[in-house]
Amino acid sequence: MKKSLLIISLMAVALAACSKKEEPAVVAPAPVVEVAPAAPVAAPATDASAAASVAASAAADAAVAASTAVDAASTAASAASAAASAANK
């Protein structure tokens, strides 16, 4: 009898909690921050061509640097392998 009363009272509390409607939280709008442009707008034809040339040059430099890094990593891996083989002998 006591267990039944306890279960019924817990079910009543659970049902009462389920029917309770909660109000949605109010979201404050984000503050507006004005940012000055980083650089002036370039002229479309001549500056775009120059920028493309600079970008191509930078990409070529990056490719050379990546190739050099691959070669260095390969050399380091070979040296590490040789050192591990020497240590195991």
Give the strand content: under 5%
The low-confidence parts are none
Count of helical segments?
2
Mean pLDDT over the residues: 75
Categorize the overall geometry.
Answer: flat
SSE pattern, N- to C-terminal: HH
Structural class given helices, strands, pairing?
Answer: mainly alpha
Helix fraction, binned, reads 55-70%
In whole angstroms, the N-to-C terminal distance is: 80 Å
Sheet having the most strands: none
What Rg is obtained from the alpha carbons, in whole angstroms?
Answer: 35 Å
Beta-strand segment tally? 0
Signal peptide: 1-16
Keywords: Signal
Protein name: H.8-like outer-membrane lipoprotein
Would you give an account of this structure?
The model has no long low-confidence stretch (mean pLDDT 75). This protein has a domain at 53-81. It is 69% helix and 0% strand. The chain is mostly helical and 89 residues long.
Structural features:
mainly alpha; H.8-like outer-membrane lipoprotein; 89 residues; signal
Short description:
Residues 1-16 form the signal peptide. The chain contains two helices and no strands.
What topology does this entry show?
Layout: H1 2-19, H2 46-88
